[in-house]
Design goal:
The chain is built from one helix and 19 strands. By secondary structure, it is mainly beta. Strand 12 and strand 13 form a beta hairpin. The longest helix is centred in the first third of the chain and has 13 residues. It is elongated and about 80 Å long. It starts with a helix and ends with a strand.
Length: about 230
């Protein structure tokens, strides 16, 4: 009889359902109302997605560096002149919109992830050309691994000169470009964004530039922004 009672109690415990705010729970824990997990709060007052670790623990990007989500978003503070033939220039995004774990150095332009993993790297940018009618431009842009001195993400674009002698002076030719790719970043490496310019003429006057802003009588907007988001 004692053995039967023990197994009956164990069976009831195994299928027990707890309700908070309800007398008819339909799951092991059924909450009719809001849920607050104090360990997921953050001092920055941001609302962020909640993720689950492999063991089921709930985390956010503020409570655990393993959680996916946007890690860094930055903007250019000023135009970068593309005035040197066949030369690299570092893109330093000194205006930070998001840097959750302080992984980006806005002075050096180096990004060092706190955790190795798979990341989504996105680059949206404008190239402006103010008065050249002959100097077409090849642009190589991407993410550079400073630890091993090579590209880990790169794309090549062709930016055409105005090619119209009536378009001069303050009337600029702006072209917009975008890159988005997934790659693995290593926490022992540091990364930085770079741009390389190569012109199709011997003209020493270079007017193209990587734009920080587009502006006019109808308003002003940021032209170049890069972001890094942890995926897994």
């Amino acid at each position: 009889m004692k053995v039967f009672y023990f197994f009956m109690t164990l069976s009831m415990a195994s299928y027990a359902q707890v309700g908070i705010g309800t007398t008819s729970p339909t799951r092991e824990l059924d909450v009719n109302g809001d849920v607050r997990v104090r360990n997921l709060s953050n001092v920055q007052g941001r609302t962020v997605p909640v993720s689950a670790l492999p063991d089921g623990t709930l985390v956010t990007t503020f409570s655990s560096n393993t959680a996916p989500g946007a890690r860094f978003v930055g903007f250019l503070a000023a135009d970068i002149p593309l005035d040197t033939q066949q030369s690299f220039k570092d893109i330093i995004l000194s205006n930070e919109l998001v840097d959750v774990l302080s992984e980006y150095n806005s002075t050096t332009g180096r990004y060092t992830p706190s955790l190795s993993g798979y990341y989504k790297v996105s680059m949206d940018f404008d190239i402006g050309d103010y008065d050249s009618v002959t100097d077409d431009l090849d642009i190589l842009i991407g993410l550079w691994d400073h630890t091993i001195n090579q590209w880990v993400l790169r794309r090549t674009f062709k930016h055409r000169g105005n090619n119209n002698s009536t378009i001069t002076g303050s009337v600029a030719r702006n072209e917009s470009y975008g890159i988005s790719n997934y790659l693995q970043l290593d926490s022992t490496h540091s990364y930085g964004f770079r741009i390389y310019s190569g012109y199709f003429s011997t003209n020493t006057t270079r007017t193209a530039r990587l734009k920080a802003q587009n502006y006019g009588s109808t308003g002003t907007s940021a032209s170049t922004s890069f972001s890094i988001e942890k995926m897994l």
